[in-house]
Design a protein that fits this description.
The protein is built from 16 helices and 13 strands. The chain has 434 residues and is α/β, with parallel strands linked by helices.
Length: 434
Amino acid sequence: MRPAGYNVAPDRERCVLVGLCTDSDRLTEQEMEYSLAELAQLADTAGVEVAGTMRQKKQALDPRFLIGKGKVAELRDLIVRSGANVVIFDRELSGAQVRNLEHELDAKIIDRTQLILDIFAQRARTREGIIQVELAQLNYLLPRLSGHGKNLSRLGGGIGTRGPGETKLETDRRHIRSRIVELGKQLEDVARHRRLLREQRKRSGVTQVALVGYTNAGKSTLLNRLTEAHAFAENRLFATLDPLTRTMKLPSGNQTVLTDTVGFIQNLPHALIAAFRATLEEVCEADLLLHVVDASAQNVARQIATVEEVLAEIGAAGKERLLIFNKADLGGPAGLAAPQDTSGHIRISAFSDDDIARLKTLLDQKLAGAAHAFAIPAERGDLIALLHRMGNVLTQTVDGEQMIIKAHIPAHEFARNGYLLAPYRVAEPKTWEE
């Protein structure tokens, strides 16, 4: 407990970070350090000062306190010495563990999941974002409502007592479940509206491209540079929460729509993925994904793997994508060692005009698609029209009762309707006129 007369300024929050590695985690010392460094960034984003850090390697987690009983005593001393009033664990805690730790430490106990949810609560600006965040928070808090009084209030508060609020969280479970159902219906309306917009874009033949990647990889900056938009961009985690769609003009004169999406992070709360499913559908429905990677990060491979895991979870694993190693001007392992540009990846700095021009040229080529040749019966006007809708027809000649057509067809279009044209696909004829 704190000594008598010890006071912490009410408008200032200082935290101690706690990391735990068990035998089943199979984490290296370096990976644990990366995770704690990221937790420190999350705390800074939430507006909390990091006053200290504690680590423990343990055979298995303690069911009462997560960390060992001896470490709890060490943590209590560290809290007193550092003047901290918040403890943030780099893992998800059960409601019982939170109550036990609060009783022993007399401090606000936050886990990684609640910290991320709290940051989202700070960042949400649109009606859609606010609904999604509240739904995620309530789904996280519902199984933790068995406490009383102080414990329950602290669970509801998060950093700075933001979030759904103590009043809602101190109602009964039936009220919470009712609110979850209500928010789910509101989100379904949002999803329906988004589907209508996507269908309109598809009917008009507009190609849809989505930016995805680890948080703070530079997606919003890239959106601004590619589309001349003025989206909010900041060198902090989760600077972008609400999706933003803008038109991008390519060197060929063609246009596509580019959507910036929320960044991913390791151990992204499942409640958050579920709540943001309406937004993440933009990723699933995109014709091409631009996977933006922070090439200056020390754990590039882990960040790429995390994004791929989330894409698989939301059903976008098979989407065509372009890997963009951004921030290459800052060095780092990927910035220095990434292979030369190919059709599958490119190394850039979003602040370089030349690099942006190279990226747009590559996008133009990918969206134009590969060249295909078809010999279609002249009476099949429906297939000829389909071919014109699917891609860019380069040449069209008559050969007896057939139309010989060569066209560039984007991979996503060929995957969608190519089976209708497959029986008429031919090798390039000798009489081909380029």
